[in-house]
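Progress against Task 2.4 (sequence-to-structure conversion) is shown through the following example record, which the project officer requested during the mid-term review.
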Amino acid sequence: MTTLVLGIGNTLLCDEGVGVHTIRALAQNHPDLADVEFMDGGTLSFSLAGDVEDATQLIVIDAAELDSAPGTVRAFVGADMDSFLGVNRKRSVHEVGLLDLMAVAHLAGHLPERRALIGIQPDIVDWGDAPTAAVAQAIPQACNLTLDLIAAWRT
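Structure tokens generated for the chain above:
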């Protein structure tokens, strides 16, 4: 089994880049985690479809509109992820939306059965190369949720 942990976002837009900042923290602190690939997905593109299709398990970390306080972290697992993406087609700086990428994998018959989205409520999505304080403080929680999912899926 391989688990792809995909951090997405634009690191030039403050909190929009939180997925990438989180993936970097995970890769730095857990470089030898067996059968796990940490990938900086940037602003997404269809070129990631093959990586998603090759994964047995998928965890995506991204800024998400949760209608909550900045820095709120929430996990959407399996069908909850699909539902959340389906009803929350927000405008995005991403070239391709996550829902589009998941649809490609589904149509190819290779959508990972075990999948999750860890969403982090942004505060500011404007020019800046670092997340705001509230969102930066949420990164360890997002890392822990990711590691908990990986561990749970191994049992």
